[in-house]
Amino acid sequence: MTPNDKSPVKGVLLLTRNFPPLRGGMERLLHALAGELAGRFALDLVGPAGCEAHASGARSVRSVPLKPVWKFLLGSLVAAWTVARRYRPAVILCGSGVMAPAAWVVARACRIPFVVYLHGLDIVTPHLLYQGVFLPAIRRADAVIVNSGPTAVLAGKAGVQRERIHIVHPGVTAVRPVMPADCVAWRTRHHLAGPVLLSVGRITERKGLAPFLRDCLPALVAVEPGLTLVVVGGEATLALGRTGASCLLPELKAQVARLGLEAHVRWLGEVAEAELQLAYASSNVLVFPVQELPGDVEGFGMVALEAAASGLPTVAFGVGGVPDAVDPARSGTLVTPGDAPAFVDAVLAHLHGRRAAINAQSCRAFADRFCWASRGEALAAALSSVIRPGRARA
User: Fold this and answer.
1) 167 burial class (0-12, 13-18, 19+ CB within 10 angstroms)?
2) Whole-model pTM?
3) Predicted confidence (pLDDT) at residue 8 exceeds the cutoff of 50
């Protein structure tokens, strides 16, 4: 579509730092949301370098180098200004709170409403600059979309007017069942003979791997000597406000060595989507031992929903927005935060058939509630609520 097209279609400018080729839960989320938006609006995207190859269906794409951070933020502002002036979108959508100041400047200058999608951490980040600049911009948004009920509460406490808050849970893509032979081949390739526990996510303190390795894995191995923990995910080297995160992986590997558990842990690092789907399909339980930390929060728990879509149950601590992503009757077990013995017992209950009602079919049925089509409709409704009359492309 060109600027001179006379079709009365509304445009959305998506402004985000979290988008492929970067990998992670938020990146998968924003990529899927972009696909839903492109099917309902004329989509313009401003994102990280390389995003052009992953933005099929977009009307226009502008990419900005990720580093240094200040250069990305400034470059995004300039790119968003250029796109807004050329295409006159009906609304600007920020993929996270980090993009709120740039969106506010462009929205104010071009008289366009803007909306921010918040994930939890982008509300409570304790950095003084963030609290003094980014959070005030978030409060000025015409609407705020949040990923869970607990995140909505955090947004209200941070000063966002409650009538402007819309809850839109992340969605999940239905996956094609993996053939049993492919699961056997995957296990063979990684030398996995017994029960497999899976951990997926960026390696940060909040994800709780360190206390799980210390307080849970030895007890699990004592009962199931053939058990292996498979860890998928890399260090959060590009995450804002997470300085020092790159030191965690060596510390975790050293911890495993001290515990004498090297034979029971596989570190796969970041993997392609096909490999991740094999990991979900070939494992017995997803472990999600997220911690409650001051100034840090798990807004939803996307990996638990992805696991359910693959028929894999989750055992998780019930912190932050995780209870919105795990159904104790259909997709897993929620454990009192910090109760390691209860976490161990919950994992063993799934391994030993004591939670027989929770199976691959029930997990997939739960995940079906979060299909992307329904999430796209909810997102479109939230955006449409702030679009002003006459903002369709003329």
Assistant:
1) middle
2) 0.85
3) no
